[in-house]
Write a structure and sequence with these properties.
about 15% strand; 3 domains; globular; alpha/beta; 3-stranded antiparallel sheet; about 525 residues; 18 helices; Rossmann fold
Length: about 525
Amino acid sequence: MILPSHPHPHGSARLADDFDLERSGLLGPKGLQFGYWRDTPLRIDSDAPALVIGGAGAGKLVTLLAYMACDPNTERVLWFDPRGEISAISIHNAARTLRPEYRWNPTGLKGPQHRCNPLDVLDPASPTFTADALYLTRNLIPLREGGKEPYFTLRAQDWVGGAMRTLALRDGQTDLPTLFAELGAVESDRTRWAALAQFMLECGEPDLRRIVGEMLAKQEESPREFGAIMGEIYANLAFLADPMLADSLTKPDFSLSALSDPATPCNIGIMCPVEYIRLWSPVLRLMFAVTKLYKQRRPDGPRITMVVDEAGQMGHFDALLEAFTFGRGAGVRAIAVFQDIGQIVRNFGAAAVQSFIGSAQTRLFMGVRDFQTAQLVSQMLGDQTIHVDDPLVQEAARHAQIHAAQRIFEDQDYMGAAFDYAYQETREQYQRTQRRALMSPDEVLAMPDDRHLLFISGMNVPPILGHRYRYFERREMAGLYLPNPNHPPADSVLIRTRWGGKRAPIVSERVPPQLARLPQYQTEPLEYVQGFRPC
Protein backbone atom coordinates (compact mmCIF):
# COMPACT_ATOMS: atom_id res chain seq x y z
CA MET A 1 0.00 0.00 0.00
CA ILE A 2 1.33 3.46 -0.94
CA LEU A 3 0.69 6.11 1.71
CA PRO A 4 -0.57 9.55 0.64
CA SER A 5 2.74 11.08 1.72
CA HIS A 6 4.72 8.85 -0.61
CA PRO A 7 6.75 10.97 -3.08
CA HIS A 8 5.59 8.82 -6.00
CA PRO A 9 2.02 7.75 -5.19
CA HIS A 10 1.17 6.87 -8.80
CA GLY A 11 4.39 5.10 -9.80
CA SER A 12 8.15 5.59 -9.77
CA ALA A 13 9.13 4.35 -13.23
CA ARG A 14 12.26 5.96 -14.68
CA LEU A 15 14.95 5.37 -17.26
CA ALA A 16 18.49 4.33 -16.40
CA ASP A 17 21.17 6.97 -15.88
CA ASP A 18 24.99 6.91 -15.85
CA PHE A 19 25.15 5.68 -12.27
CA ASP A 20 22.83 2.75 -13.02
CA LEU A 21 24.91 1.68 -16.03
CA GLU A 22 28.26 1.92 -14.23
CA ARG A 23 26.96 -0.06 -11.27
CA SER A 24 25.41 -2.80 -13.44
CA GLY A 25 28.62 -3.76 -15.22
CA LEU A 26 27.02 -3.37 -18.65
CA LEU A 27 29.80 -1.03 -19.79
CA GLY A 28 32.49 -3.69 -19.38
CA PRO A 29 34.46 -5.48 -22.12
CA LYS A 30 32.79 -8.92 -21.98
CA GLY A 31 29.64 -10.23 -23.62
CA LEU A 32 27.61 -9.64 -26.74
CA GLN A 33 27.00 -6.02 -27.68
CA PHE A 34 23.47 -4.63 -27.54
CA GLY A 35 23.94 -1.07 -28.76
CA TYR A 36 25.58 1.84 -26.96
CA TRP A 37 25.21 4.07 -23.97
CA ARG A 38 26.23 7.33 -25.59
CA ASP A 39 29.63 6.27 -27.05
CA THR A 40 30.29 3.23 -24.84
CA PRO A 41 29.22 -0.25 -25.96
CA LEU A 42 26.54 -1.97 -23.88
CA ARG A 43 27.57 -5.60 -23.38
CA ILE A 44 25.69 -8.42 -21.67
CA ASP A 45 27.71 -11.45 -20.58
CA SER A 46 25.02 -14.03 -19.86
CA ASP A 47 23.64 -17.38 -20.93
CA ALA A 48 20.02 -16.17 -20.74
CA PRO A 49 17.89 -15.70 -23.87
CA ALA A 50 17.27 -12.38 -25.57
CA LEU A 51 14.25 -11.13 -27.51
CA VAL A 52 14.68 -8.46 -30.19
CA ILE A 53 11.66 -6.69 -31.68
CA GLY A 54 12.34 -4.39 -34.61
CA GLY A 55 10.03 -3.31 -37.39
CA ALA A 56 10.82 -3.83 -41.05
CA GLY A 57 13.61 -1.51 -42.10
CA ALA A 58 14.52 -0.66 -38.51
CA GLY A 59 18.21 -1.41 -39.08
CA LYS A 60 18.51 -4.60 -37.04
CA LEU A 61 21.53 -5.74 -39.06
CA VAL A 62 23.45 -2.47 -39.26
CA THR A 63 22.88 -1.36 -35.66
CA LEU A 64 22.80 -4.66 -33.74
CA LEU A 65 23.54 -7.99 -35.42
CA ALA A 66 26.60 -6.74 -37.32
CA TYR A 67 28.31 -5.80 -34.05
CA MET A 68 27.79 -9.31 -32.70
CA ALA A 69 28.90 -11.02 -35.91
CA CYS A 70 31.96 -8.85 -36.59
CA ASP A 71 33.38 -9.17 -33.08
CA PRO A 72 36.47 -11.42 -33.53
CA ASN A 73 35.84 -12.90 -30.08
CA THR A 74 32.32 -14.10 -30.91
CA GLU A 75 32.37 -17.88 -31.23
CA ARG A 76 30.15 -20.95 -30.99
CA VAL A 77 27.27 -19.16 -32.66
CA LEU A 78 24.63 -20.70 -34.91
CA TRP A 79 23.43 -17.89 -37.19
CA PHE A 80 20.15 -18.08 -39.07
CA ASP A 81 21.21 -15.67 -41.77
CA PRO A 82 18.53 -14.63 -44.28
CA ARG A 83 20.11 -13.13 -47.40
CA GLY A 84 23.60 -14.22 -46.29
CA GLU A 85 24.49 -10.66 -45.26
CA ILE A 86 25.78 -11.52 -41.78
CA SER A 87 28.18 -14.11 -43.18
CA ALA A 88 29.34 -11.92 -46.05
CA ILE A 89 30.41 -9.00 -43.87
CA SER A 90 31.99 -10.97 -41.02
CA ILE A 91 33.49 -14.29 -42.17
CA HIS A 92 37.04 -12.94 -42.59
CA ASN A 93 37.36 -12.20 -38.86
CA ALA A 94 37.72 -15.92 -38.09
CA ALA A 95 41.17 -15.77 -39.70
CA ARG A 96 42.39 -13.76 -36.71
CA THR A 97 41.92 -16.75 -34.39
CA LEU A 98 42.17 -19.57 -36.99
CA ARG A 99 38.55 -20.45 -36.23
CA PRO A 100 36.60 -22.75 -38.59
CA GLU A 101 33.47 -21.28 -40.17
CA TYR A 102 30.83 -23.47 -41.81
CA ARG A 103 28.08 -22.24 -44.11
CA TRP A 104 25.01 -24.21 -45.16
CA ASN A 105 24.40 -22.24 -48.32
CA PRO A 106 22.29 -24.18 -50.87
CA THR A 107 21.60 -21.30 -53.27
CA GLY A 108 25.19 -20.07 -53.52
CA LEU A 109 24.87 -16.76 -51.72
CA LYS A 110 28.12 -14.88 -51.13
CA GLY A 111 30.60 -17.19 -49.39
CA PRO A 112 31.43 -20.90 -49.18
CA GLN A 113 28.92 -23.73 -49.65
CA HIS A 114 28.98 -26.64 -47.22
CA ARG A 115 26.65 -29.61 -46.92
CA CYS A 116 25.02 -30.68 -43.67
CA ASN A 117 22.89 -33.67 -42.66
CA PRO A 118 20.82 -32.69 -39.61
CA LEU A 119 19.59 -36.28 -39.19
CA ASP A 120 23.11 -37.47 -38.30
CA VAL A 121 22.03 -37.02 -34.69
CA LEU A 122 19.97 -40.22 -34.96
CA ASP A 123 21.98 -43.11 -33.57
CA PRO A 124 20.19 -46.51 -33.38
CA ALA A 125 22.52 -47.49 -30.52
CA SER A 126 21.56 -44.48 -28.43
CA PRO A 127 19.05 -44.98 -25.59
CA THR A 128 17.36 -41.76 -26.77
CA PHE A 129 17.01 -42.96 -30.37
CA THR A 130 13.20 -43.16 -30.36
CA ALA A 131 12.75 -39.95 -28.38
CA ASP A 132 15.15 -38.10 -30.68
CA ALA A 133 13.24 -39.22 -33.77
CA LEU A 134 9.92 -38.11 -32.29
CA TYR A 135 11.39 -34.75 -31.26
CA LEU A 136 12.81 -34.11 -34.72
CA THR A 137 9.56 -35.11 -36.39
CA ARG A 138 7.61 -32.58 -34.34
CA ASN A 139 9.90 -29.86 -35.63
CA LEU A 140 9.55 -31.05 -39.21
CA ILE A 141 5.76 -31.29 -39.00
CA PRO A 142 4.57 -28.94 -36.25
CA LEU A 143 1.09 -28.77 -34.82
CA ARG A 144 -0.25 -25.47 -36.07
CA GLU A 145 -1.50 -23.05 -33.43
CA GLY A 146 -5.30 -23.15 -33.54
CA GLY A 147 -5.35 -25.92 -36.15
CA LYS A 148 -8.79 -27.48 -36.60
CA GLU A 149 -7.65 -30.94 -37.72
CA PRO A 150 -4.77 -32.02 -35.46
CA TYR A 151 -5.58 -35.70 -36.11
CA PHE A 152 -4.01 -35.72 -39.56
CA THR A 153 -0.95 -33.82 -38.36
CA LEU A 154 -0.49 -36.24 -35.46
CA ARG A 155 -0.77 -39.25 -37.77
CA ALA A 156 1.70 -37.64 -40.18
CA GLN A 157 4.15 -37.10 -37.32
CA ASP A 158 3.81 -40.72 -36.28
CA TRP A 159 4.32 -42.10 -39.78
CA VAL A 160 7.28 -39.85 -40.62
CA GLY A 161 8.92 -40.60 -37.27
CA GLY A 162 8.47 -44.31 -37.89
CA ALA A 163 10.00 -44.07 -41.37
CA MET A 164 12.89 -42.03 -39.99
CA ARG A 165 13.71 -44.66 -37.37
CA THR A 166 13.29 -47.49 -39.87
CA LEU A 167 15.82 -46.01 -42.29
CA ALA A 168 18.31 -45.35 -39.51
CA LEU A 169 17.96 -48.96 -38.33
CA ARG A 170 18.24 -50.36 -41.85
CA ASP A 171 21.13 -48.22 -43.12
CA GLY A 172 22.86 -47.22 -39.88
CA GLN A 173 22.00 -43.59 -40.62
CA THR A 174 19.68 -41.59 -42.83
CA ASP A 175 19.14 -38.14 -44.31
CA LEU A 176 16.19 -36.02 -45.35
CA PRO A 177 16.33 -36.69 -49.13
CA THR A 178 16.32 -40.46 -48.48
CA LEU A 179 13.43 -40.07 -46.06
CA PHE A 180 11.44 -38.07 -48.63
CA ALA A 181 12.17 -40.59 -51.39
CA GLU A 182 11.03 -43.54 -49.26
CA LEU A 183 7.83 -41.75 -48.24
CA GLY A 184 7.14 -40.84 -51.85
CA ALA A 185 7.52 -44.49 -52.82
CA VAL A 186 4.55 -45.39 -50.60
CA GLU A 187 2.23 -44.24 -53.39
CA SER A 188 4.50 -44.33 -56.43
CA ASP A 189 6.76 -47.40 -56.17
CA ARG A 190 5.06 -50.52 -54.82
CA THR A 191 8.23 -52.60 -54.88
CA ARG A 192 10.22 -50.10 -52.84
CA TRP A 193 7.33 -49.55 -50.42
CA ALA A 194 6.89 -53.29 -49.98
CA ALA A 195 10.57 -53.70 -49.12
CA LEU A 196 10.41 -50.94 -46.52
CA ALA A 197 7.17 -52.31 -45.04
CA GLN A 198 8.68 -55.79 -44.84
CA PHE A 199 11.67 -54.45 -42.92
CA MET A 200 9.40 -52.60 -40.50
CA LEU A 201 7.44 -55.79 -39.85
CA GLU A 202 10.55 -57.90 -39.29
CA CYS A 203 12.88 -55.46 -37.49
CA GLY A 204 11.70 -56.48 -34.04
CA GLU A 205 10.39 -53.05 -33.06
CA PRO A 206 6.74 -53.35 -31.88
CA ASP A 207 6.06 -49.67 -32.47
CA LEU A 208 7.28 -49.84 -36.06
CA ARG A 209 5.11 -52.90 -36.67
CA ARG A 210 2.14 -50.94 -35.36
CA ILE A 211 2.89 -47.98 -37.63
CA VAL A 212 3.33 -50.02 -40.80
CA GLY A 213 0.22 -52.05 -39.95
CA GLU A 214 -1.79 -48.85 -39.64
CA MET A 215 -0.40 -47.50 -42.91
CA LEU A 216 -1.19 -50.70 -44.83
CA ALA A 217 -4.68 -50.93 -43.35
CA LYS A 218 -5.59 -47.33 -44.14
CA GLN A 219 -4.10 -47.58 -47.63
CA GLU A 220 -6.31 -50.58 -48.33
CA GLU A 221 -9.47 -49.84 -46.35
CA SER A 222 -9.61 -46.02 -45.96
CA PRO A 223 -8.00 -44.50 -49.04
CA ARG A 224 -9.44 -41.02 -48.41
CA GLU A 225 -8.09 -40.88 -44.87
CA PHE A 226 -4.80 -42.37 -46.05
CA GLY A 227 -4.59 -39.71 -48.75
CA ALA A 228 -5.28 -36.92 -46.25
CA ILE A 229 -2.46 -38.08 -43.99
CA MET A 230 -0.03 -38.45 -46.89
CA GLY A 231 -1.11 -35.01 -48.08
CA GLU A 232 -0.13 -33.58 -44.70
CA ILE A 233 3.28 -35.25 -45.03
CA TYR A 234 3.83 -33.94 -48.55
CA ALA A 235 2.74 -30.43 -47.55
CA ASN A 236 5.43 -30.26 -44.88
CA LEU A 237 8.21 -32.04 -46.77
CA ALA A 238 7.59 -30.74 -50.30
CA PHE A 239 10.69 -28.53 -50.10
CA LEU A 240 12.80 -31.71 -50.38
CA ALA A 241 11.67 -32.15 -53.99
CA ASP A 242 14.16 -29.40 -54.91
CA PRO A 243 17.36 -31.13 -56.17
CA MET A 244 19.50 -28.14 -55.18
CA LEU A 245 18.27 -28.27 -51.60
CA ALA A 246 18.40 -32.07 -51.42
CA ASP A 247 22.04 -32.02 -52.54
CA SER A 248 22.93 -29.69 -49.64
CA LEU A 249 21.51 -32.19 -47.12
CA THR A 250 23.57 -35.24 -48.16
CA LYS A 251 27.29 -36.13 -48.07
CA PRO A 252 27.89 -33.65 -45.25
CA ASP A 253 30.98 -31.46 -44.94
CA PHE A 254 30.25 -30.72 -41.29
CA SER A 255 27.99 -31.74 -38.45
CA LEU A 256 25.98 -29.48 -36.18
CA SER A 257 27.74 -31.28 -33.33
CA ALA A 258 30.81 -29.14 -34.09
CA LEU A 259 29.37 -26.29 -32.01
CA SER A 260 29.37 -28.50 -28.92
CA ASP A 261 32.94 -29.76 -29.38
CA PRO A 262 35.04 -28.20 -26.58
CA ALA A 263 38.25 -28.72 -28.54
CA THR A 264 37.42 -26.66 -31.63
CA PRO A 265 35.51 -23.37 -31.37
CA CYS A 266 33.62 -22.61 -34.56
CA ASN A 267 30.64 -20.73 -35.97
CA ILE A 268 27.93 -22.06 -38.28
CA GLY A 269 25.84 -19.99 -40.65
CA ILE A 270 22.50 -21.21 -41.99
CA MET A 271 21.99 -19.12 -45.12
CA CYS A 272 18.57 -18.98 -46.71
CA PRO A 273 17.22 -16.40 -49.16
CA VAL A 274 14.46 -14.50 -47.43
CA GLU A 275 11.89 -15.52 -50.05
CA TYR A 276 12.51 -19.20 -49.19
CA ILE A 277 12.31 -18.95 -45.40
CA ARG A 278 8.71 -20.13 -45.16
CA LEU A 279 9.28 -22.84 -47.75
CA TRP A 280 12.40 -24.16 -46.03
CA SER A 281 11.21 -23.48 -42.47
CA PRO A 282 10.93 -27.20 -41.59
CA VAL A 283 14.63 -27.84 -42.20
CA LEU A 284 15.61 -24.56 -40.53
CA ARG A 285 13.65 -25.53 -37.42
CA LEU A 286 15.20 -28.99 -37.58
CA MET A 287 18.75 -27.61 -37.60
CA PHE A 288 17.96 -25.50 -34.54
CA ALA A 289 16.48 -28.51 -32.73
CA VAL A 290 19.41 -30.78 -33.61
CA THR A 291 21.91 -28.22 -32.34
CA LYS A 292 20.03 -28.17 -29.03
CA LEU A 293 20.10 -31.97 -28.85
CA TYR A 294 23.84 -32.11 -29.40
CA LYS A 295 24.42 -29.49 -26.72
CA GLN A 296 22.23 -31.37 -24.24
CA ARG A 297 24.50 -34.38 -24.74
CA ARG A 298 27.50 -32.24 -23.80
CA PRO A 299 26.23 -30.37 -20.74
CA ASP A 300 29.80 -29.74 -19.61
CA GLY A 301 30.69 -28.14 -22.93
CA PRO A 302 30.94 -24.42 -23.68
CA ARG A 303 27.89 -22.23 -24.07
CA ILE A 304 26.25 -22.00 -27.51
CA THR A 305 24.49 -18.91 -28.84
CA MET A 306 21.77 -19.35 -31.48
CA VAL A 307 20.66 -16.20 -33.29
CA VAL A 308 17.42 -16.55 -35.25
CA ASP A 309 16.86 -13.58 -37.53
CA GLU A 310 13.41 -13.28 -39.11
CA ALA A 311 12.06 -15.78 -36.56
CA GLY A 312 8.52 -14.74 -37.41
CA GLN A 313 8.85 -16.23 -40.89
CA MET A 314 9.58 -19.75 -39.60
CA GLY A 315 6.11 -20.66 -38.38
CA HIS A 316 5.34 -22.56 -35.19
CA PHE A 317 8.70 -23.35 -33.64
CA ASP A 318 8.57 -25.45 -30.47
CA ALA A 319 12.35 -25.73 -30.19
CA LEU A 320 12.72 -21.94 -30.10
CA LEU A 321 10.15 -21.52 -27.34
CA GLU A 322 11.82 -24.35 -25.41
CA ALA A 323 15.19 -22.61 -25.76
CA PHE A 324 13.66 -19.55 -24.10
CA THR A 325 11.84 -21.34 -21.32
CA PHE A 326 14.50 -23.81 -20.20
CA GLY A 327 17.40 -23.56 -22.65
CA ARG A 328 19.37 -21.39 -20.23
CA GLY A 329 19.92 -24.38 -17.98
CA ALA A 330 21.09 -26.45 -20.95
CA GLY A 331 23.89 -24.06 -21.93
CA VAL A 332 22.02 -22.61 -24.91
CA ARG A 333 21.49 -18.89 -25.35
CA ALA A 334 18.78 -18.12 -27.89
CA ILE A 335 18.39 -14.69 -29.49
CA ALA A 336 15.17 -14.40 -31.49
CA VAL A 337 14.48 -11.46 -33.79
CA PHE A 338 10.85 -10.66 -34.60
CA GLN A 339 9.34 -7.70 -36.44
CA ASP A 340 6.45 -7.24 -34.01
CA ILE A 341 4.53 -8.95 -31.23
CA GLY A 342 1.88 -10.01 -33.74
CA GLN A 343 4.33 -12.48 -35.30
CA ILE A 344 4.64 -14.27 -31.95
CA VAL A 345 0.86 -14.35 -31.54
CA ARG A 346 0.31 -15.76 -35.05
CA ASN A 347 2.92 -18.50 -34.71
CA PHE A 348 2.70 -19.47 -31.05
CA GLY A 349 -0.57 -18.06 -29.68
CA ALA A 350 -1.28 -15.08 -27.44
CA ALA A 351 -0.07 -16.85 -24.28
CA ALA A 352 3.39 -17.32 -25.79
CA VAL A 353 4.01 -13.56 -25.74
CA GLN A 354 4.33 -13.73 -21.96
CA SER A 355 6.51 -16.84 -22.24
CA PHE A 356 8.98 -15.11 -24.53
CA ILE A 357 9.03 -11.83 -22.62
CA GLY A 358 9.00 -13.45 -19.19
CA SER A 359 11.78 -15.92 -20.02
CA ALA A 360 14.08 -13.50 -21.84
CA GLN A 361 16.60 -11.71 -19.68
CA THR A 362 17.15 -9.12 -22.41
CA ARG A 363 14.32 -7.49 -24.34
CA LEU A 364 15.30 -4.94 -26.97
CA PHE A 365 12.82 -2.82 -28.94
CA MET A 366 13.82 -0.69 -31.92
CA GLY A 367 11.94 0.91 -34.77
CA VAL A 368 8.53 -0.12 -33.41
CA ARG A 369 5.98 0.29 -36.20
CA ASP A 370 2.69 -1.12 -34.84
CA PHE A 371 0.43 0.02 -32.02
CA GLN A 372 0.14 -3.41 -30.36
CA THR A 373 3.89 -3.61 -29.78
CA ALA A 374 4.08 0.07 -28.78
CA GLN A 375 1.33 -0.45 -26.21
CA LEU A 376 3.17 -3.44 -24.75
CA VAL A 377 6.42 -1.47 -24.49
CA SER A 378 4.60 1.40 -22.80
CA GLN A 379 3.13 -1.00 -20.24
CA MET A 380 6.54 -2.59 -19.63
CA LEU A 381 8.06 0.82 -18.94
CA GLY A 382 5.44 1.51 -16.27
CA ASP A 383 4.00 4.71 -14.83
CA GLN A 384 5.59 7.73 -13.23
CA THR A 385 4.20 10.35 -10.87
CA ILE A 386 4.22 13.86 -12.30
CA HIS A 387 3.37 17.18 -10.65
CA VAL A 388 1.21 19.64 -12.56
CA ASP A 389 -0.06 23.10 -11.69
CA ASP A 390 -3.69 23.32 -10.54
CA PRO A 391 -4.81 26.69 -11.98
CA LEU A 392 -8.10 26.81 -10.04
CA VAL A 393 -6.44 26.32 -6.66
CA GLN A 394 -3.58 28.67 -7.51
CA GLU A 395 -5.89 31.44 -8.75
CA ALA A 396 -8.09 31.15 -5.64
CA ALA A 397 -4.95 31.35 -3.49
CA ARG A 398 -3.81 34.52 -5.24
CA HIS A 399 -7.17 36.18 -4.57
CA ALA A 400 -7.11 35.08 -0.93
CA GLN A 401 -3.54 36.36 -0.64
CA ILE A 402 -4.62 39.81 -1.85
CA HIS A 403 -7.43 39.92 0.72
CA ALA A 404 -5.02 38.84 3.47
CA ALA A 405 -2.63 41.64 2.50
CA GLN A 406 -5.45 44.17 2.62
CA ARG A 407 -6.37 43.00 6.13
CA ILE A 408 -2.79 43.48 7.24
CA PHE A 409 -2.71 47.10 6.06
CA GLU A 410 -6.18 47.78 7.44
CA ASP A 411 -4.91 46.66 10.86
CA GLN A 412 -7.68 44.09 11.21
CA ASP A 413 -6.44 41.01 13.08
CA TYR A 414 -2.86 41.69 12.02
CA MET A 415 -1.40 38.32 13.19
CA GLY A 416 -4.20 36.21 11.74
CA ALA A 417 -3.97 38.03 8.43
CA ALA A 418 -0.19 37.47 8.31
CA PHE A 419 -0.58 33.72 8.89
CA ASP A 420 -3.32 33.58 6.27
CA TYR A 421 -1.09 35.44 3.80
CA ALA A 422 1.74 32.93 4.31
CA TYR A 423 -0.65 30.00 3.91
CA GLN A 424 -2.13 31.38 0.68
CA GLU A 425 1.38 32.06 -0.62
CA THR A 426 2.10 28.35 -0.23
CA ARG A 427 -1.17 27.39 -1.91
CA GLU A 428 -0.28 29.63 -4.84
CA GLN A 429 2.49 27.13 -5.71
CA TYR A 430 0.18 24.12 -5.30
CA GLN A 431 0.67 21.24 -7.72
CA ARG A 432 -1.34 18.06 -7.83
CA THR A 433 0.10 14.63 -8.61
CA GLN A 434 -1.13 12.44 -11.40
CA ARG A 435 -0.22 9.23 -13.15
CA ARG A 436 1.54 9.30 -16.52
CA ALA A 437 3.10 6.55 -18.59
CA LEU A 438 6.87 6.88 -18.72
CA MET A 439 6.43 6.69 -22.50
CA SER A 440 3.02 6.58 -24.11
CA PRO A 441 2.42 4.28 -27.11
CA ASP A 442 2.59 7.21 -29.51
CA GLU A 443 5.92 8.27 -28.00
CA VAL A 444 7.25 4.73 -28.46
CA LEU A 445 6.16 4.83 -32.10
CA ALA A 446 7.87 8.21 -32.52
CA MET A 447 11.13 7.12 -30.86
CA PRO A 448 14.14 8.49 -32.82
CA ASP A 449 15.80 6.12 -35.27
CA ASP A 450 19.10 6.23 -33.39
CA ARG A 451 17.62 5.05 -30.07
CA HIS A 452 16.30 1.79 -28.70
CA LEU A 453 14.77 0.57 -25.46
CA LEU A 454 16.55 -2.18 -23.56
CA PHE A 455 15.03 -4.12 -20.65
CA ILE A 456 17.42 -6.33 -18.67
CA SER A 457 16.31 -8.56 -15.82
CA GLY A 458 18.47 -9.62 -12.91
CA MET A 459 20.91 -6.68 -12.97
CA ASN A 460 18.90 -4.18 -10.92
CA VAL A 461 18.91 -1.63 -13.71
CA PRO A 462 15.90 0.39 -14.97
CA PRO A 463 14.97 0.34 -18.66
CA ILE A 464 17.73 1.78 -20.82
CA LEU A 465 17.10 4.30 -23.58
CA GLY A 466 20.23 3.35 -25.47
CA HIS A 467 21.91 4.66 -28.57
CA ARG A 468 22.49 2.78 -31.78
CA TYR A 469 24.79 3.58 -34.66
CA ARG A 470 25.38 2.01 -38.03
CA TYR A 471 28.47 -0.17 -37.84
CA PHE A 472 30.25 1.58 -40.72
CA GLU A 473 30.01 4.90 -38.86
CA ARG A 474 32.15 3.72 -35.94
CA ARG A 475 35.95 4.04 -35.89
CA GLU A 476 36.40 0.95 -33.74
CA MET A 477 34.67 -1.16 -36.39
CA ALA A 478 37.03 -0.22 -39.23
CA GLY A 479 38.51 -3.34 -40.80
CA LEU A 480 36.08 -5.69 -39.06
CA TYR A 481 33.56 -5.86 -41.90
CA LEU A 482 33.49 -6.58 -45.62
CA PRO A 483 31.02 -5.24 -48.20
CA ASN A 484 27.38 -6.24 -47.96
CA PRO A 485 26.64 -8.04 -51.25
CA ASN A 486 23.16 -6.50 -51.36
CA HIS A 487 24.51 -2.95 -51.13
CA PRO A 488 27.13 -2.11 -53.81
CA PRO A 489 29.92 -1.41 -54.39
CA ALA A 490 31.51 -4.79 -53.73
CA ASP A 491 35.13 -3.68 -54.09
CA SER A 492 35.28 -1.18 -51.22
CA VAL A 493 33.72 -0.28 -47.89
CA LEU A 494 33.03 2.96 -46.10
CA ILE A 495 35.10 3.22 -42.91
CA ARG A 496 35.36 5.91 -40.26
CA THR A 497 38.83 7.31 -39.53
CA ARG A 498 40.20 10.04 -37.32
CA TRP A 499 39.69 12.50 -40.15
CA GLY A 500 36.18 11.42 -41.12
CA GLY A 501 34.73 8.84 -43.48
CA LYS A 502 36.49 7.38 -46.51
CA ARG A 503 36.23 4.42 -48.85
CA ALA A 504 38.78 1.66 -48.35
CA PRO A 505 39.40 -0.92 -51.11
CA ILE A 506 38.94 -4.66 -50.57
CA VAL A 507 42.02 -6.83 -51.06
CA SER A 508 41.54 -10.36 -52.43
CA GLU A 509 44.53 -12.68 -52.33
CA ARG A 510 45.57 -16.29 -52.29
CA VAL A 511 44.93 -18.06 -49.00
CA PRO A 512 48.13 -18.29 -46.90
CA PRO A 513 49.27 -21.74 -45.66
CA GLN A 514 48.17 -21.18 -42.07
CA LEU A 515 44.57 -20.64 -43.23
CA ALA A 516 44.41 -23.27 -45.96
CA ARG A 517 43.02 -25.95 -43.62
CA LEU A 518 40.01 -23.85 -42.61
CA PRO A 519 36.75 -24.91 -44.30
CA GLN A 520 35.79 -21.35 -45.27
CA TYR A 521 38.91 -21.08 -47.44
CA GLN A 522 38.68 -24.37 -49.33
CA THR A 523 37.09 -22.62 -52.31
CA GLU A 524 37.20 -18.93 -51.37
CA PRO A 525 40.08 -16.40 -51.45
CA LEU A 526 41.21 -14.40 -48.45
CA GLU A 527 39.48 -11.01 -48.49
CA TYR A 528 40.06 -8.10 -46.16
CA VAL A 529 39.99 -4.31 -45.99
CA GLN A 530 43.22 -2.71 -47.17
CA GLY A 531 45.34 -1.85 -44.15
CA PHE A 532 43.54 -4.35 -41.89
CA ARG A 533 44.99 -7.76 -42.83
CA PRO A 534 43.46 -10.27 -40.37
CA CYS A 535 46.53 -12.53 -40.13
